[in-house]
Protein backbone atom coordinates (compact mmCIF):
# COMPACT_ATOMS: atom_id res chain seq x y z
CA UNK A 1 0.00 0.00 0.00
CA UNK A 2 1.24 3.40 -0.87
CA UNK A 3 3.40 4.76 1.96
CA UNK A 4 2.14 8.21 1.08
CA UNK A 5 -1.45 7.05 1.44
CA UNK A 6 -1.19 4.46 4.14
CA UNK A 7 2.10 4.95 5.95
CA UNK A 8 1.90 5.00 9.73
CA UNK A 9 1.65 8.78 9.92
CA UNK A 10 -1.00 9.20 7.30
CA UNK A 11 -2.91 6.23 8.70
CA UNK A 12 -3.40 8.04 12.00
CA UNK A 13 -4.83 10.86 9.89
CA UNK A 14 -7.09 8.35 8.21
CA UNK A 15 -8.32 7.14 11.57
CA UNK A 16 -9.08 10.71 12.51
CA UNK A 17 -10.87 11.13 9.21
CA UNK A 18 -13.02 8.13 9.99
CA UNK A 19 -13.85 9.74 13.33
CA UNK A 20 -14.73 12.99 11.65
CA UNK A 21 -16.78 11.36 8.96
CA UNK A 22 -18.84 9.25 11.29
CA UNK A 23 -19.35 11.81 14.02
CA UNK A 24 -18.95 15.09 12.27
CA UNK A 25 -20.06 17.27 9.43
CA UNK A 26 -21.27 14.55 7.12
CA UNK A 27 -23.86 13.05 9.41
CA UNK A 28 -26.51 15.65 8.69
CA UNK A 29 -28.15 13.96 5.78
CA UNK A 30 -31.84 14.88 5.56
CA UNK A 31 -33.05 11.42 6.22
CA UNK A 32 -34.90 10.13 9.23
CA UNK A 33 -32.89 6.95 8.96
CA UNK A 34 -29.44 8.44 9.53
CA UNK A 35 -28.35 7.07 12.88
CA UNK A 36 -24.95 6.56 14.43
CA UNK A 37 -25.62 2.86 14.97
CA UNK A 38 -27.61 0.59 12.73
CA UNK A 39 -31.00 0.10 14.34
CA UNK A 40 -31.79 -3.54 14.69
CA UNK A 41 -35.48 -4.28 14.21
CA UNK A 42 -37.35 -7.07 15.98
CA UNK A 43 -36.56 -9.56 13.20
CA UNK A 44 -32.86 -8.83 13.65
CA UNK A 45 -32.63 -6.79 10.48
CA UNK A 46 -30.33 -3.76 10.59
CA UNK A 47 -31.91 -0.53 9.46
CA UNK A 48 -31.81 -0.18 5.71
CA UNK A 49 -32.49 2.51 3.13
CA UNK A 50 -34.39 1.47 0.03
CA UNK A 51 -34.63 3.31 -3.28
CA UNK A 52 -38.14 3.11 -4.75
CA UNK A 53 -37.04 3.46 -8.37
CA UNK A 54 -34.28 0.85 -8.01
CA UNK A 55 -35.69 -2.45 -6.73
CA UNK A 56 -32.99 -4.65 -5.21
CA UNK A 57 -30.81 -1.75 -4.06
CA UNK A 58 -30.38 -1.68 -0.28
CA UNK A 59 -28.10 0.56 1.73
CA UNK A 60 -27.16 -0.50 5.27
CA UNK A 61 -25.76 2.70 6.73
CA UNK A 62 -23.01 2.47 9.29
CA UNK A 63 -23.35 -1.31 9.45
CA UNK A 64 -19.73 -1.74 10.48
CA UNK A 65 -18.60 -0.15 13.72
CA UNK A 66 -15.59 2.10 13.64
CA UNK A 67 -13.55 -0.64 15.29
CA UNK A 68 -14.61 -3.14 12.61
CA UNK A 69 -13.70 -0.61 9.91
CA UNK A 70 -10.30 0.05 11.48
CA UNK A 71 -9.62 -3.68 11.75
CA UNK A 72 -10.45 -4.15 8.08
CA UNK A 73 -8.18 -1.28 7.01
CA UNK A 74 -5.38 -2.63 9.23
CA UNK A 75 -5.75 -6.10 7.74
CA UNK A 76 -5.68 -4.71 4.20
CA UNK A 77 -2.48 -2.81 5.01
CA UNK A 78 -0.91 -5.84 6.69
CA UNK A 79 -1.68 -8.10 3.72
CA UNK A 80 0.63 -5.81 1.72
CA UNK A 81 -1.62 -5.74 -1.35
CA UNK A 82 -0.94 -2.06 -1.87
CA UNK A 83 2.77 -1.90 -1.08
CA UNK A 84 3.59 -0.88 -4.62
CA UNK A 85 2.62 2.79 -5.04
CA UNK A 86 0.90 2.10 -8.36
CA UNK A 87 -1.32 -0.67 -6.94
CA UNK A 88 -4.93 0.32 -6.53
CA UNK A 89 -6.76 -2.99 -6.80
CA UNK A 90 -6.43 -6.43 -5.21
CA UNK A 91 -8.53 -9.43 -6.15
CA UNK A 92 -9.14 -12.70 -4.35
CA UNK A 93 -10.85 -15.77 -5.81
CA UNK A 94 -12.12 -18.86 -4.04
CA UNK A 95 -11.64 -18.97 -0.29
CA UNK A 96 -11.67 -15.35 0.84
CA UNK A 97 -9.22 -14.08 3.50
CA UNK A 98 -10.42 -14.42 7.10
CA UNK A 99 -10.62 -10.65 7.61
CA UNK A 100 -13.14 -10.50 4.77
CA UNK A 101 -15.00 -13.61 5.97
CA UNK A 102 -15.66 -11.86 9.29
CA UNK A 103 -17.64 -9.23 7.38
CA UNK A 104 -19.31 -11.90 5.24
CA UNK A 105 -20.56 -13.46 8.52
CA UNK A 106 -22.23 -10.15 9.39
CA UNK A 107 -23.74 -9.83 5.92
CA UNK A 108 -25.00 -13.44 5.94
CA UNK A 109 -26.95 -12.66 9.09
CA UNK A 110 -28.98 -9.84 7.51
CA UNK A 111 -32.27 -11.65 6.84
CA UNK A 112 -33.51 -9.99 3.66
CA UNK A 113 -30.37 -8.54 2.13
CA UNK A 114 -30.98 -10.74 -0.93
CA UNK A 115 -33.79 -12.96 -2.18
CA UNK A 116 -33.62 -16.47 -0.66
CA UNK A 117 -32.15 -18.19 -3.71
CA UNK A 118 -29.12 -15.88 -3.49
CA UNK A 119 -28.97 -15.79 0.29
CA UNK A 120 -28.93 -19.59 0.57
CA UNK A 121 -26.21 -20.29 -1.98
CA UNK A 122 -22.95 -21.68 -0.70
CA UNK A 123 -20.63 -19.91 -0.60
CA UNK A 124 -22.41 -16.57 -0.67
CA UNK A 125 -19.31 -14.97 -2.19
CA UNK A 126 -16.11 -16.40 -3.68
CA UNK A 127 -14.58 -13.31 -5.19
CA UNK A 128 -13.52 -10.04 -3.64
CA UNK A 129 -12.03 -6.90 -5.11
CA UNK A 130 -10.44 -4.30 -2.90
CA UNK A 131 -10.22 -0.92 -4.62
CA UNK A 132 -8.26 2.06 -3.36
CA UNK A 133 -9.40 5.43 -4.67
CA UNK A 134 -7.29 8.53 -4.15
CA UNK A 135 -9.29 11.72 -3.72
CA UNK A 136 -10.58 12.55 -7.18
CA UNK A 137 -10.49 8.96 -8.52
CA UNK A 138 -13.64 7.36 -9.86
CA UNK A 139 -14.93 4.28 -11.63
CA UNK A 140 -16.76 4.43 -14.96
CA UNK A 141 -20.43 3.68 -14.97
CA UNK A 142 -20.87 -0.06 -15.55
CA UNK A 143 -23.01 -3.11 -15.00
CA UNK A 144 -20.96 -5.80 -13.28
CA UNK A 145 -19.90 -8.52 -15.73
CA UNK A 146 -22.20 -11.43 -16.52
CA UNK A 147 -19.56 -13.88 -15.28
CA UNK A 148 -20.69 -12.90 -11.77
CA UNK A 149 -23.92 -14.18 -10.27
CA UNK A 150 -26.67 -11.91 -9.03
CA UNK A 151 -26.20 -10.57 -5.48
CA UNK A 152 -23.30 -8.15 -5.08
CA UNK A 153 -22.15 -6.20 -2.03
CA UNK A 154 -19.94 -3.10 -1.76
CA UNK A 155 -18.37 -2.17 1.59
CA UNK A 156 -17.11 1.41 1.96
CA UNK A 157 -14.18 2.44 4.15
CA UNK A 158 -12.29 5.64 5.07
CA UNK A 159 -14.04 8.23 2.87
CA UNK A 160 -17.51 9.05 1.64
CA UNK A 161 -18.41 9.43 -2.01
CA UNK A 162 -21.50 9.52 -4.21
CA UNK A 163 -22.23 6.46 -6.31
CA UNK A 164 -24.48 7.28 -9.24
CA UNK A 165 -27.01 4.84 -10.62
CA UNK A 166 -28.41 5.34 -14.11
CA UNK A 167 -30.65 3.12 -16.25
CA UNK A 168 -28.54 0.56 -18.07
CA UNK A 169 -30.99 -0.45 -20.78
CA UNK A 170 -28.58 0.24 -23.61
CA UNK A 171 -25.59 -1.41 -21.97
CA UNK A 172 -27.80 -4.34 -20.98
CA UNK A 173 -28.94 -4.94 -24.52
CA UNK A 174 -25.40 -4.94 -25.82
CA UNK A 175 -24.29 -7.42 -23.16
CA UNK A 176 -27.35 -9.62 -23.56
CA UNK A 177 -28.63 -8.91 -20.06
CA UNK A 178 -32.26 -8.56 -19.07
CA UNK A 179 -34.06 -6.24 -21.46
CA UNK A 180 -37.05 -5.75 -19.17
CA UNK A 181 -35.61 -2.69 -17.45
CA UNK A 182 -37.51 -1.43 -14.43
CA UNK A 183 -36.20 2.08 -15.05
CA UNK A 184 -38.99 4.18 -16.44
CA UNK A 185 -37.09 7.41 -17.10
CA UNK A 186 -33.98 6.70 -19.20
CA UNK A 187 -32.39 9.94 -17.94
CA UNK A 188 -32.94 9.29 -14.25
CA UNK A 189 -29.82 9.41 -12.10
CA UNK A 190 -29.94 8.34 -8.47
CA UNK A 191 -27.02 9.43 -6.28
CA UNK A 192 -26.34 7.21 -3.31
CA UNK A 193 -23.99 8.57 -0.68
CA UNK A 194 -21.66 5.84 0.54
CA UNK A 195 -20.04 6.59 3.89
CA UNK A 196 -17.38 4.68 5.80
CA UNK A 197 -18.95 1.60 7.36
CA UNK A 198 -21.85 1.47 4.90
CA UNK A 199 -22.72 -1.72 3.08
CA UNK A 200 -24.56 -1.52 -0.25
CA UNK A 201 -26.36 -4.57 -1.65
CA UNK A 202 -27.42 -4.95 -5.28
CA UNK A 203 -29.62 -7.70 -6.65
CA UNK A 204 -32.15 -8.14 -9.45
CA UNK A 205 -32.94 -4.84 -11.21
CA UNK A 206 -30.30 -2.96 -9.19
CA UNK A 207 -27.66 -5.38 -10.46
CA UNK A 208 -28.86 -5.84 -14.06
CA UNK A 209 -31.04 -2.89 -15.09
CA UNK A 210 -29.02 -0.05 -13.58
CA UNK A 211 -25.40 0.89 -14.17
CA UNK A 212 -23.37 2.27 -11.25
CA UNK A 213 -20.29 4.43 -11.20
CA UNK A 214 -18.35 7.01 -9.20
CA UNK A 215 -17.49 10.31 -10.84
CA UNK A 216 -13.82 11.29 -10.94
CA UNK A 217 -14.11 14.39 -8.81
CA UNK A 218 -12.70 15.63 -5.52
CA UNK A 219 -16.04 16.98 -4.34
CA UNK A 220 -19.48 15.43 -4.63
CA UNK A 221 -22.54 17.62 -4.31
CA UNK A 222 -25.70 15.71 -3.49
CA UNK A 223 -28.70 17.86 -2.68
CA UNK A 224 -27.48 20.31 -0.05
CA UNK A 225 -24.60 18.06 0.94
CA UNK A 226 -21.00 18.66 -0.11
CA UNK A 227 -18.66 15.71 0.25
CA UNK A 228 -14.93 16.35 0.12
CA UNK A 229 -13.34 13.07 -0.92
CA UNK A 230 -10.38 11.58 0.85
CA UNK A 231 -8.70 8.25 0.22
CA UNK A 232 -11.46 5.65 -0.02
CA UNK A 233 -11.19 1.89 0.14
CA UNK A 234 -13.99 -0.37 -1.03
CA UNK A 235 -14.46 -4.11 -0.90
CA UNK A 236 -16.75 -5.63 -3.54
CA UNK A 237 -18.03 -9.15 -2.87
CA UNK A 238 -19.44 -11.36 -5.61
CA UNK A 239 -19.93 -14.98 -6.60
CA UNK A 240 -18.41 -16.29 -9.83
CA UNK A 241 -20.84 -18.10 -12.15
CA UNK A 242 -18.40 -20.95 -12.71
CA UNK A 243 -15.60 -22.13 -10.50
CA UNK A 244 -12.96 -21.49 -13.09
CA UNK A 245 -10.38 -20.04 -10.75
CA UNK A 246 -8.15 -21.65 -8.16
CA UNK A 247 -7.91 -20.09 -4.72
CA UNK A 248 -5.72 -17.09 -5.15
CA UNK A 249 -5.19 -13.48 -4.26
CA UNK A 250 -3.42 -11.11 -6.54
CA UNK A 251 -2.79 -7.45 -6.67
CA UNK A 252 -3.36 -5.62 -9.88
CA UNK A 253 -2.61 -2.03 -10.61
O1 LIG B 1 -15.61 0.80 -5.35
C1 LIG B 1 -16.83 0.82 -5.35
O2 LIG B 1 -17.48 1.41 -4.51
C2 LIG B 1 -17.57 0.09 -6.45
C3 LIG B 1 -16.76 -0.92 -7.14
C4 LIG B 1 -17.52 -1.61 -8.23
O3 LIG B 1 -18.53 -1.16 -8.68
C5 LIG B 1 -17.01 -2.86 -8.78
O4 LIG B 1 -15.95 -3.35 -8.32
O5 LIG B 1 -17.67 -3.43 -9.67
FE1 LIG C 1 -19.55 -2.58 -9.94
Automatic annotation (TrEMBL):
Residues 124-241 form the Fe2OG dioxygenase domain. One of its GO terms (biological process) is DNA damage response. Transmembrane segments: none annotated. GO terms for cellular component: mitochondrial matrix. SUPFAM superfamilies: Clavaminate synthase-like. InterPro entries: AlkB-like, AlkB-like_sf, ALKBH7-like, Oxoglu/Fe-dep_dioxygenase_dom. This is 15798_t:CDS:1. The lineage of its organism: Eukaryota, Fungi, Fungi incertae sedis, Mucoromycota, Glomeromycotina.
